[in-house]
Amino acid sequence: MSERGDLLMVRDVVAGYGAAPVLHAIDLTVPAGTIAAVVGANGAGKTTLLRTISGVLRPQAGRIQLAGEDLRGVPVERLVQRGMAHVPEGRGVIGELTVDENLRLGGLWRRDRADAARALEEVYQLFEPLARRRRHLGHQLSGGERQMLALGRALVGRPRLLLLDEPSLGLAPRVVARIMALLRQLRDDTGLTVLLVEQNVRSALSVADQGVVMSLGRVVTTAPAADLRDDVDLRHAYLGF
Amino acid sequence: MDRFVFLTLDGLSRGAVYAAFALALVLIWRAARVVNFAQGAMAVAAAYVAYSVASATGSYWLGFVVALVAGLALGALVDRAVMRYVDHASPLNPVIVALGLVLLIQAVLGMVYGSEFRPAEVPFSRGAFTVGGFAVLSPYDLFVFGAVAVVVCALAWIFARTAIGLRMRAAAFAPEVSRLLGVNVGGMLTLGWALASGVGALAAMLVIPTELGLHPHAMDLVFVSSFTAAVVGGLDSPPGALVGGLVVGLVLSYVSGYAGSDLTPLAVLVLLLAVLLVRPGGLFAPVAARRV
Amino acid sequence: MSATSAATPPQQRATGGAGRPADPRRGSTLLRHLAVAAVAGLLLLGLSYAVEPFRNFQIATVAAYLCATAGLTVLTGLNGQLSLGHGALMATGAYTVALCQNAFYDRGATGGLLLLVSLAAAVVVTVAVGAVVGVAAARLRGPYLAGVTLAVAVVVPALTVTFNGVFNGEQGLSVPVEPPPLALGAYFPYERWQLWIAGAATLLTLLLLANLVRSRYGRTFRAVRDDEVAARLAGIHVARTQVLAFVVSAATAGLGGALLAVLAQSVSPGAFGLTLSLFLLMAVVIGGLGRLAGAVWGAVLLVALPDLSHSVTDQLTLSAAAAQRLEGNLPLAIFGITLVVVMLVAPGGVQGLLSRLGRALLARWRARRS
């Protein structure tokens, strides 16, 4: 197993809320510059997995490595500096702040102020609607605009690894398609690595390189996304279509 | 008529202090969802420190600066040493802890300084200027307005224009998202407590000389008036706290001027109840108010 | 663990249901409480003969505080309403008794039953005041409620100065009380008589409260505390329940204040300031929110701690002024620290710790027997 090519490595991670663990011995590897999609039914532990990787939830056992460095004991607020960005479920736009403030927040930790400003402008170019609504408050935006804002805010930090929790939740299919296309574009252009958690299996697997199927807190299968799309038995058993 | 003008100006001057103190309450409420019932006692403690420094060095201004610094430090200490460890699952818990701090701080002050009133110095004359035979403002009133205005403008600038202010607001509105974005939420909370407590100390320095003097309980009634001011403005709104402070100051000034100063405590209670029963979210509540 | 939910830990309920065979005592709650009250009364009677007059007076003071803390326990612990204004309610009861007794005295009326009339009047007046505050309180939550009751606590004592003519300002009023009946003998100690009065009133109060807590009303109190929406959906009138809880606790606070006035034979606003309200709250929190037994601990502490700090200061060699400062403020400091520490470390309070300890010992004992 080559450690060099793998940006994120999760080994035997056990985590949960209170006494009973939600995740049982999770193993997961995401090579640099690829998109991995974690799919599975409700309650499979997908969101808990993301929260554990980004340190919001402390694992009870196992280890998590980002680019070969162990993340144990690293506070959540330091992970952005190591190149990890987590866009939480429900998008996490701060409704009381303006679009511009939300975006600036994504780059505040950076020492390189000039590049942070450049990244901000790039995000505005990438998401045209946000540029038009700079001064609007977060809660005035539509669902799609909020997803753009949350995604853009993560990109301002120029992450190496992007953790995306249900970006398609509550969005129109056209908007979902745009976001998925954008993820692929970012991967190809900037070498961004993405770990995507999705209920929307079809669109997630359509964009991903690797598919990870979770059920009841365990990884059932890891396979190239194209194979999963074609594996009828697996789809019936775990994904319900 | 000249009496009305005098009472109005006097009310505005008192109101400015209430506004500052209410602003401090609002700052902590927004940052930590805690009404800091210990703020009066903390502010008095800072004022006592100023008193000690001023009597030792003979310099009012040194004492003034030390009071502000002591206020900042005390706020940070209360957050770091106590409030951080309070379980916020029930809103009763932080209130009870704050009240424990009130007892503790007042007892320590009583032990060190005794419970007699100590005269508090003023840096400027409290004798009013007269304009065309009207008694209007005193130099001290102008100092009060100036000090409160400087602090309000500074806070507004910090919160609206600086990166640290943006971090503080983000941490208050969405702590978990802010941590994911690299904001040190715990540090921002401590900073919020420190700033609020510093503003409270300033208010105490400004108001105590105009009352009976330094005493461990000197801010009890000021706290109640300022809490009323914060409620009038809505606990979530800093501009509301400023307007609320001026409103409370005016009401109390008129009541005391026209109906007798003995009635001011009752007036505060009536005003507080009236506002809470008519508009529980405050007069400036946003449309989608948080649950009271 | 929140302060209020700590009052009834789930495992306690579970063992209560599983450990006992179908709770045969359910029908006899009143009888059981009566028996406990009777035993407590006899103990108190014996105690009143066993200890010196000063201790009698102290126990009587504990009883007076217990009235108030028990009521506050019901309000804050069982119904989840925080009141910082109970010192003011005690003042209401105390001043009512003072005014009544003075009125009787001025008209030359004498007789043992007049004190009962005055105490009843104190309860009635405090209930009226409590109903007014309670109606307002039922619309308020959390810090807003705390702020309003804090305002009541600060403002009400100041009113005695505002209405100088009736309440005689900072000086306060004296409370003329009849000596013990002659039937008890010419040399019957006055303090023992005081203990009898306060003890009887307090036992009656506790009996009523204990039954209330175990009744349907007690359950609605707890339901409203735990989840207002759920309680409303279950058909409970939330506001009415909250006002009822406030009125009940106001009545006991009024009685407690009245007893204090009778014991001290005087009332003054200084005795009923914000500090008293905070002391009461501290007593119920330290005793254990939501437990009547915790209220006993709180009331004992209220009397014992100042006494203790008095003896501590006596041990130290200090100048008169320093000793006075220390003695006045040491109990406050201890109360404050205890309040903070208890909230951080043991939200169940003393009684919570004791019952946890008791359960652990019982479990070990059972394990050894089986």
TrEMBL record, chain B:
- Which top-rank group of organisms is this from? Bacteria
List localization entries: Cell membrane
* Pfam families listed in its UniProt record: BPD_transp_2
To which protein family does this belong? Answer: Belongs to the binding-protein-dependent transport system permease family. LivHM subfamily.
Q: Which InterPro entries match?
A: ABC_transp_permease, BCAA_transport_permease
Bilayer topology annotation: Multi-pass membrane protein
Q: Does the keyword Cytoplasm apply?
A: no
Q: Organism source for this protein?
A: Micromonospora musae
Q: What is this protein called?
A: Branched-chain amino acid ABC transporter permease
Molecular functions per Gene Ontology: transmembrane transporter activity
Sorted alphabetically, the keyword list is: Amino-acid transport, Cell membrane, Membrane, Transmembrane, Transmembrane helix, Transport
Does Kinase appear among the keywords?
no
Biological process terms from the Gene Ontology for this record are: amino acid transport
| Any one GO CC term of the record | plasma membrane
State which residue ranges cross the membrane: 12-29, 36-54, 60-83, 95-114, 142-160, 181-208, 214-235, 242-260, 266-289
TrEMBL record, chain C:
Q: One Pfam family of this protein, by short name?
A: BPD_transp_2
UniProt-listed InterPro entries: ABC_transp_permease, LivM-like
Q: Please indicate which superkingdom the organism of origin belongs to.
A: Bacteria
Query: Which molecular function GO terms apply here?
Result: branched-chain amino acid transmembrane transporter activity
* Record's bilayer topology term: Multi-pass membrane protein
Q: Which locations, inside or outside the cell, does it occupy? A: Cell membrane
Which keywords does this Swiss-Prot/TrEMBL entry list? Cell membrane, Membrane, Transmembrane, Transmembrane helix
Transmembrane: is it a keyword of this entry? yes
The ranges of region (Disordered) come to 1-24
Q: Where is the composition biased (Polar residues)?
A: 1-12
GO cellular component terms? plasma membrane
Bilayer-crossing residues are: 30-51, 57-75, 87-105, 111-137, 144-167, 193-213, 243-264, 270-289, 296-312, 332-354
Official protein name in the record = Branched-chain amino acid ABC transporter permease
Biological classification of the source: Bacteria, Bacillati, Actinomycetota, Actinomycetes, Micromonosporales
